[in-house]
Every structure is written in C-alpha cells, then in structure tokens.
Amino acid sequence: MSLRSFVARLPLARRAKRAAASAGVLVSEIRAVALAAWRRSLQLRVVVSTLALSTAVSLVLGLVLQTQIADRLLQGKFDAAIAQAESARAISERDLSGVDPDREGAQGTLNNALDQLTNQSTADAAGAPTAGEFRAALTTGAGSGPEISAGNLDDVSPEQRQTVANGALSTQYTTVDGIPTLVVGQPVRTAGRELQLYLMFPLDAEQRTLGLVQSTLIVGGLVLILLLAGIAGLVTRQVVRPVRQAAEVAERFAEGHLDERMPVHGEDEVARLFESYNEMASSIQTQIRQLEEFGALQRRFTSDVSHELRTPLTTVRMAADILYASRDELLPALRRSSELLVTELDRFENLLGDLLEISRLDAGVAELGTDRLDMRHVVSRAVEAVRGLAEESGTPLVLDLPGDVYAEVDSRRVERIVRNLVANAIDHGEGRPVNVTLAGDEHAVAVVVRDHGVGLRPGEAGLVFNRFWRAEESRARRSGGSGLGLSISLEDARLHGGWLQAWGEPGRGSAFRLTLPRTEGDLLESSPLPLQPEGDDPDTAHPLPASVPTPPWGTPISAELRAGEPADGRGGDAVAPAEPAVLDPRGDR
Fold first, then answer.
1. Ramachandran bin of 183, using left for φ above 0, alpha for ψ from -120 to 50, beta for the remaining angles
2. What are phi and psi of 519, to 5 degrees?
3. In this structure, are residues 425 and 450 in contact, taking their beta carbons and an 8 Å threshold?
4. DSSP bridge pairs for 397
5. What's the whole-model pTM score?
6. Taking 50 as the threshold, does the pLDDT of residue 567 lie above it?
C-alpha cells in the first residue's frame, strides 16, 4: 500500500471510530433507560415475565407436538409401505414364478412384470393397504450370472442391496432430488435365482404436512403469547393502578397535605387496604395537629415566661447593682451575698436570653443576616470574649487564624458558636492549652476548637447536644453555662447550611469543628480541616493542620454530630438528625 492511499484512508478510520463510539454511547443510554423502566414499573416486569414464560412454554409444547405428529406420520407411512411392499412381492412372485432370469429374454420379462406392478393398483385387492405413489425396480443382483435390472437402481445404496441379496427385508431413508424417500427392498423367488425388488416411496406429502403443522404451531404460539401478554397487562393494571394511585396520595401526604385520602371503591382487598390507610392517615393527622398545638403552646409558654420574667429581673438587677456598688460598706457576710447575687443574676439573664433564642428557633422565625466577612476577625472577637475566663483558669489559648478567609455569614451567630465552643473547651480542658484553628478552601471555611482535657466517655456521645444535659454534675464550672449553648450553636450552624461536628477520646481530649459554606445557600461536600487529630502531643499546644481531607470516621469511642451532613461524614444532602445526638458529653454542650 502506498503512503498516499494510507493517508487517504485515515479520515475514514477516524469517522468509523467516532461512529463506533457514538453507537456505544447510544447503546449505553438505551440500556440505562431500559433498566430504569424495569426497576420502576411493576406492570412492565409482570408483562415481560409473562411473555418470557409463555414463550418458553409455547416452544416446549410446539416441539413436543411437532415431534409427536412427525413420528405418527412417518410410522403410518412406514407401516403402509411395508404392507404394500409385501403385497407387491406376492404379485411379483406370482407373475415371475416360472421365469428363469438366466435364460434369454429375461430382460423383457422383468420389464413387463415391473410395468404391470407399477400400473396395477394394489389397493384394488380386498384389504390391501396403500402407501401412495411409489417407484419400483427389479434386479437379479451380481450373482452367478450377469446382472439384469428393470427400473432405476441409482437411489438404492450398496449396503441395502447387499442386505437384500442376503435374503432379508431392508428399509432405508434417503434423499432423492431434495425429496426424502423411503426405500423398501426384499427378495423375490423365481424358477431360477432370486430377484431383488425395491419400492421407493417419496415423502413429499408428509413433508408438506409437517411444514403446514409447523407453521400452524408457530402462528398459534405467537397469537397465544400476544394474548397472554395482553391478558397479563390488563390483569396487572387492575393491581398496579391502585398501587400507583396510593403512592401518589402517600407522596402528597408526606409533603404536608394531611387531608389527602385514598378513594375507596368496592369491598375487595384493595378497598380494605385503602380504608386502613385512610384510618392511619386520619390518626397521624390528629396526632400531628396535637403535637403542633402542644409545640406552639410550649413555645408560647417559654416566650411568655421569658418576657414576663424580664420585668422583675430588671427590678432585682437594679437593687443588686446598688448593693454591689456599696459592698465595701457592708459586713463581710453581706458583701459576699451581694457578689453571689450579681453573679447569679448574670447567669439568670443569660438563661433567659438562651430561652428566648430557643423559642425563636423552635418557632422557625429566626432570621439569618449574612455579610461577606473576614472570618479571622469574627473568630478573634469570639475568643476575646472568653479570654478573661481562660486567664482565670490558667488555660493558654493557641490561635492559628490566617487572613483572607472570607465567607457570607451572620457574625453574631458565628461568634456565639465559637464562643460557646471555646468556653466549653476551657471548662473541660483541665488547664491545658486550647487550640483554635481557622482554614478555608474554595467552597467552605472551618473552625476547629481542640482541647486536651477529659475527652469523651463511651455512651455519652448521643447526649452532648441535648438541652439542659450535663455530663458531670459535680464538676466545677467557670463559665456558668445554661445548658443550652451547644443546642443553640447547632441550630445556628443549621441556619447557615453548615455542619457542627465533634470528636473525643478519654485522656486525649476532644475537638469540635464548625464548617460553613463560603457562599450562602451552597451545599457542603467536604471540610478544609480534619476533625480527628492525628498524633498530637497533649502536653504541647501545636496548632492543628489547616488542610488535608477529613480522616476516616467510626472509631470505637468517637462520635459525630453534623448539622446537615450525611452519616458517612463526607458531605452530601443537608439532612439534620431529629434529635441532636453527638459528640462530647461535657457540661452544657
């Protein structure tokens, strides 16, 4: 092949390759559509299964019937041919009983006898069977004298001629000019040596009969399969249609349309199922409304109590401030009482504020006011708010806050989350360093608060974010939390579409990670910071690495809470758990 012809064929090869690739894509799409339809349609599966089974049954039945009919036809033809051959042999022996084949003129005698045999209707004799049209041949065989034959012996095999020459009856199936033929050979006694008589019965009529039977079976099988498919489709539709209708009603009911009910017709099993569903839906609707009324009443009660308590609290605060301002003039016991009064009033005010915030969150009226802010400043302000608490407890705060980490957040809520996490870390860090690390990537920002204190104990992970729950009631606390801090933090993270997660082990401390999307409304898929630390020294305050993917989950003692993250910890649809359950069983976390 020349170089020019080779180059000329290159575009054709490329087009063929592209066409093959397009065909492969088309086949893959068709396969995907077919698989989707197969999985989603019960009626399709039933109809296709019925077609497959009925096709198999029809094939087996057709083969059995065809085999039986063919055997019966051939057996009848064979029996009639044997009987007719015996009758022809008797006639031939009668006509040739005085003929010596070795004498002169035997050829003409054999021809006359053969003509008389083929022209005579053997069926004229009483009780003589007939096998239909046949051709005959007579021969003396290759014996002691010369072979004298009448008729065409080309269709008779040498093996069959040898069998007949040995004095036995022989039958054989052969094909003559494309037509199956039954050849019957037997010896005929004469005055001299024996002759060989061969009758050839064509089976073209039986072949046509079998072809007609076969075509009839095929057409009948196809009609039967189509009828069965139609019947299966109609029967399945009677079952599938109510099921589809029930699925649509159930979907609308799940979307919040609690008045949706199944239409009930008749008294069959489907009607009883729909009645049961309607009763269940009515019961669920009643319970949901009762729960809504109870929740509304509870929120209203919390809000009203919080508001009503503010008036007497303001009066008590004014009196307490006056006493506290003049505490130096009081007796030592009264001075201590005034200090305790102011401290507890501060805690009471914080509790009222948390209760009001919880009531707004439960009522779904909490609003998110986002701005594009530098997260370093937001985290710094939250840490500075609790720095006095850290200095009082002697807890070092180690910050790793890089600049230019921007995100659309509500600064008030994010500061409250970080402030709660750092305050809890100080409370439970046993004076060891607390690390606060900030990092970001293209889609998310994260803040990790790590302490090296008591950590988590097995079984307490599912209670951390429950309201008013405390892990160790006897532990001395410095922050004076209300027991609602982490519950409110979780709801703030959910409002941002973010995650609030935690990890811990006894003796290794714990870590809390807040992950927020850079842009409001984006879905999170991963976090810029790992949650579980790897190989850090609890006696030294090394910042956590601000990179790398999230490490594997599921250590025996660790647990996680995600505000809108799936269970595998690697991001996904934002679906928060019904009961905030996860990490770190400490204080008011």
1. beta
2. -115, 135
3. yes
4. 434
5. 0.46
6. no
